[in-house]
């Protein structure tokens, strides 16, 4: 029916694979936070933009990994 998302089953992952994904999620979260902090603290406009772009990329990575687990 229109408007309904196609439901895909989560792949069967091993405990080791889930642990790896969990570690990567935490890494992406931490790095995103660090880049956001650097962007806020930077007084150089070019650096601020660069830091924010890096933060955005890591946030996107985090969201992508999280969606993979849904």
Descriptive tags:
single chain, 0% strand, 70 residues, mainly alpha
The computed structural class is mainly alpha
Q: Characterize the main sheet.
A: none
Roughly what is the average pLDDT, rounded to an integer? Answer: 89
Considering DSSP H and I runs of 4 or more, what fraction of the residues is helical?
over 70%
**Helix segment tally:** 2
Cα gyration radius (Å): 16 Å
In what range is the share of β-strand residues?
under 5%
Helix and strand pattern: HH
Mass-distribution shape:
elongated
- What is the distance, rounded to the nearest whole angstrom, between the alpha carbons of the first and last residues? 21 Å
* Poorly predicted sequence stretches spanning 5 or more consecutive residues: none
Count of distinct strands? 0
Give your account of this protein's structure:
With 70 residues, the chain is mainly alpha-helical. The chain is 74% helix and 0% strand. The protein contains two helices and no strands. The longest helix has 27 residues, at 15-41.
Summarize the SSE layout with pairings:
Layout: H1 15-41, H2 45-69
Helix pairs in contact: 1-2
